[in-house]
Amino acid sequence: MAHDQTPSEKRHLLLVLNGKAAPREDVRSAVEAVRGAGHTLEVRVTYDGDDAGRFVREAVEREDARPGVIVAGGGDGTINQVIASALETRPETDCAFGALPLGTANDFATGMGLPVDDVRAALMLCATGTPRPIDAGRINGRIFVNVASAGSVTRITREADPRAKELLGGAAYLIAGASRLGDLVPSRARIEGDGFSFDDEFVALAVGNGRLAGGGVPLCANARYDDGELDLALFPRPDADHMLSLLSGLLSEGEGTLDGYARTHRFTRLVVDADDELAVNLDGEPMSARRLEVEVMPKALRFVTGA
């Protein structure tokens, strides 16, 4: 049975590792270091689309030898798959979670203060750090832990060339957006929730449990993972003279680049009714819908943070 441990105790971890990262020498070295420190570390490598979910479902349903910490080794999409699969299978799981950030953007890990540039330190933190309660979000029954976005900008970034993302990181999103400015068609929707009301056109919408998305862009700059609320950042259609400036802000890193464009609100429940189907991105995982029912899941899981 999984249980909390003090930093001096040895921990049982399961690393669900994205197959693309399996050959990396720094990952192998980090695994050896954690095992060498006396911790039990199982490694499961994903190759097919649902491997991560299957590994996690099997782990949380164990009656014996259930891991104390399940570590998502990959990018934001892998973290989403691991946590969502666990909470959907066993919402009251006693397993905690951690991250080994190995993706292109690593927005969730960066926002959590994890050591994104030191693989060994990140994995060792999972073995020795203290799990703390954090929130999650849910849209139409699907779980996210960082940021969900919708609208034309989301559709454009979803279609960014994967090879460009590997080579250029977050800059690939800006290049994709700038090259397709003519495709930035606003969406129209009615949005209601917790004292907020909107009925007009917008180019982007973000719901943040975390602050960063799209390679370090602070879409929800004031969001916190543990405040029991989600943060809305809504970007109404600007006039033509400001469209490129807004697009640049939505796709570029840097504090303050979106000042003056966004309508913001904190909420626990929100409903979006759009005239047409919206492209939606949940922590890097795609979906589409005309109606979005959004809610916070307070203290839904325990996560080993960098704080």
Number of domains in the coordinates? Answer: 2
Oligomer: single chain
Please provide the count of β strands: 13
CATH domain class name of the largest domain: Mainly Beta
Please trace the helix and strand order, writing H or E for each element. Answer: EHEHEHEHHEEEHHHEEEHEEE
Mind sketching the topology for me?
Blueprint: E1 12-18, H1 25-36, E2 40-46, H2 51-60, E3 69-74, H3 76-89, E4 96-101, H4 107-111, H5 119-128, E5 131-139, E6 142-144, E7 147-150, H6 152-158, H7 162-168, H8 171-179, E8 187-193, E9 196-208, E10 230-236, H9 240-250, E11 263-267, E12 269-282, E13 285-304
Parallel strand pairs: 1-2, 1-3, 3-4
Antiparallel strand pairs: 5-6, 5-13, 7-9, 7-12, 8-9, 8-12, 9-10, 10-11, 12-13
Write a brief structural summary.
The chain has nine helices and 13 strands. By secondary structure, it is of the alpha+beta class.
What does this structure look like?
The chain folds into two domains: 12-129, Probable inorganic polyphosphate/atp-NAD kinase, domain 1 (Rossmann fold, 3-Layer(aba) Sandwich), CATH 3.40.50; 142-297, Tumour Suppressor Smad4, CATH 2.60.200.40. With 307 residues, the chain is of the alpha+beta class. The strands form two sheets. Strands 5, 6, 7, 8, 9, 10, 11, 12 and 13 form a nine-stranded antiparallel β-sheet that branches. Helix content is 28%, strand content 35%. The protein has helices spanning 25-36, 51-60, 76-89, 107-111, 119-128, 152-158, 162-168, 171-179, 240-250, and strands at 12-18, 40-46, 69-74, 96-101, 131-139, 142-144, 147-150, 187-193, 196-208, 230-236, 263-267, 269-282, 285-304.
